[in-house]
Amino acid sequence: MSTMERDMGSDVLLLSPLLHPHPHILSFSSSPSPSSGPLTPSLPLPVPLPVPVLVPLFHSHPLEGDDPHSSPSSWSFGPVLTPDVPLPPPCRAHSPVSPQELDMSDFEEHFKTKAQGPALDISVLKAKATQKAPSKVTLMESNRAKNLAITLRKGGRSIQDICTAIETYDQQALSLDFLELLLRFLPTEYERTLIGKFERDQQPPEELSDEDQFMIRFSKIPRLAERMNVMIFLGSFGDTAQLLTPQLNAIIAASMSLKSSSKLRHILEIVLAFGNYMNSSKRGAAYGFRLQSLDALLEMKSTDRKQTLLHYLVRVIMEKYPELTGFHTELHFLDKAGTVSLEGVLQDVRSLQQGMELTRREFMRQDDSPVLKDFLKVNSEVMEKLQADSKTAKEAYESAVEYFGENPKTCPPTTFFPMFMRFIRAYKKAEQDIELWKKQEAAAKEAESGSPGSEQPPELPVQKARRQQMDMIAELKKKQMVKEPLIYEGKDGAIEDIISGER
User: Quick one: how far is CA 462 from the chain centroid?
Assistant: First the structure.
């Protein structure tokens, strides 16, 4: 550092050439000669600067006479030196305005903020922070303890009241939902080990949390798991039995009505007769058909595309077998039975039977419990009836399914009964269509009979039906390309295969 640079210190600011009156001649060499004094200009200055230029500078150090402990916020004017101009002494800036001079009490009164609370003693807070809360002994995993605390708050009862209600099978004290939640917190083997160690060490229970204290009292209940399951069974038996009984009755009634309906059997025989006639030249006579073939009756249409094969069958039944018209009145509860999961219902009945056996065993171990005694006295007959109904429903359904040529293992009630429901709805719709067509034909005939020049006698309904039958038979014969002899085959035919072959 050169001599001038040392003299200037941190308070010297070299002006940019733009501030010099002759910027085109103000230039300093980048490396001054060691023999020369301070910085020497590369070109001689034609006009010396008689007056130094002063600019305000911020002093980071206190000026002479200032308080060394005061804030470094005073301003002074430092000289800007030009070459060969001696450094003048620094000038003192004006003293800052003091708060006493401005009377800050009035300012504080107008702009003060409201206190958020009582003033806190910082020393007291520090003392409290240094004092650690005494750590409590825990017997449960932290998340499990938190979940148990939430469950106990939902119960809304003390530890002693909850455990006493479990020991006495008190259904009024504890709700079914609370019991189902509490069942998840049965003490594990590890927790029982920790509880035993805690008691052997004779540690005071006050050191434990509320959840751990509950777990200690909870684990002291004899046959805890059995008691909890019995209480849940007692609380849910009535509702479950009321839910299962109508489902079993629907399966029984629907299965028996299908199997015992003579009208339905006769209608299916008519369907089979038409199927065998359509199949006579190809596969021979069939013993029967699958129930899903009933849906195919709506797919085949007549030559004029105005009616389906089901319409034709309904017309034949209405004219030749009028006693079969209301066959669907013999079938009961098909819609309800079609929504029942029989396997699920049977499993629920088995679960109820297991719960009843568990309750009987508990009563034999504790025969002085009036709650168990009254429950077994009232509901034993209900359980026996449920078992009998479940057996009847299973047998009736399997018998009905096998009667119609289906497999009970692969054809559940949700598939079996809806097939008959769809056929009944389509049959009723076909009846309505035929009645509407008859009314339209009668109106057309009346219009023709009233018009002049109508000499042709009207066609009787029987004649028209016979003509339509002959037209359909003729159409079926036209579609048979090759005449083949009637061949008997020892297997069932399927109407949907017949219809697909005729298309």
Answer: 62
What is d(CA 479, CA 470) in angstroms, rounded to the nearest whole number? 14
Nearest residue to 187 (alpha-carbon basis) of 198, 175, 177, 171: 198
Of the candidates 220, 240, 221, 217, the one whose C-alpha atom is nearest the C-alpha of residue 170 is 221
**Cα–Cα distances in angstroms (integers) from residue 8 to residues 2, 16, 87, 309, 415, in the given order:** 10, 16, 8, 118, 105
For the segment 294-344, what is each residue's pLDDT rounded down to a tens digit? 888 888 888 888 889 999 999 999 999 999 988 999 999 999 999 999 999
- Alpha carbon 479 to chain centroid, angstroms: 56
Cα dist from 327 to 262, 275, 349, 401, 428, whole Å = 8, 21, 34, 19, 11
pLDDT band at 98 (very low <50, low <70, confident <90, very high): low
What is the distance between the alpha carbons of residues 89 and 76, in angstroms, rounded to a whole number?
A: 11
Question: Quick check: helix, strand or coil at residue 54?
Answer: strand
Handedness of CA 491, 497, 499, 503 (dihedral sign): negative
Task: Check residue 438 and give its pLDDT.
Answer: 87
Helix locations, 188-308, DSSP H: 189-200, 210-219, 224-260, 262-278
186-216 per-position pLDDT tens digit: 999 999 999 888 888 888 877 788 898 999 9
pLDDT number for residue 38: 45
Tokens of 482: 């090759």
Total residue count of the chain as it appears in this document: 503
Q: Encode pLDDT of 380-431 as tens digits.
A: 999 999 999 999 999 999 999 999 999 999 999 999 999 999 999 999 999 9
Q: And the tokens for 394?
A: 């299973």
The model carries a pTM of: 0.61
Three-state SS at 62? coil
